[in-house]
Amino acid sequence: METRRTGRISDPPCDACDVVTVPTRQGLEAVDILRRGDGEAVGPVMHDDGCDTLGFVVPPGTAAAWDVPGSTCTETDGRGLSLVPAAGPPVRGSDWLLPPGEADPATDPAVLRAALGEAARLIEAADSCR
Questions:
Q1: How many other CB atoms are found less than 10 A from the CB of residue 6?
Q2: What is the dihedral of CA 86, 91, 93, 95, to 10 degrees?
Q3: Structural contact between residues 20 and 71, judged by C-beta atoms closer than 8 angstroms
Q4: Is residue 8 a contact partner of residue 104, using CB atoms and an 8 Å limit?
Q5: Please, what is the Cα angle at 57 between 72 and 103, to 5 degrees?
Q6: Using one digit for the tens of pLDDT, what is the confidence trace for 71-98?
Q7: How far is CA 87 from the centre of its chain?
Q8: Could you tell me the CA-to-CA distances from 128 to 46, 100, 102 in Å, in that order?
Q9: CA pair distance 116, 68, nearest whole angstrom
Q10: Tens digits of per-residue pLDDT, 54-71?
Q11: What pLDDT is stored for residue 64 in this prediction?
């Protein structure tokens, strides 16, 4: 998988992309961090209807090496993940926070890992101030 200088991934076959799932608070912080960068380092992001988790679309194969505590990475093999906004929600009980077409094809896993780490540190710092 080729990474461009902007932190974006060259168009992966997203019909088989993996999904990194994180708690909503950490995920929203990570989205903010990613969008503050060059504005295009984040791919499609979905949320569940209960707003408990966010799912970041990442290139296929990411799940095999994903090791970020507090998150999971699931292989989709194209099952239940439609990256066509007009097709409706990506999976039952979810909707797009950042729909395909308004984002990169997928989030670079290394960039996401760094953003999730920074988000965790920000949350920990904010919570310790209470």
A1: 14
A2: -40
A3: yes
A4: yes
A5: 145
A6: 999 988 766 565 655 555 566 778 889 8
A7: 19
A8: 29, 36, 35
A9: 8
A10: 999 999 999 999 999 999
A11: 93
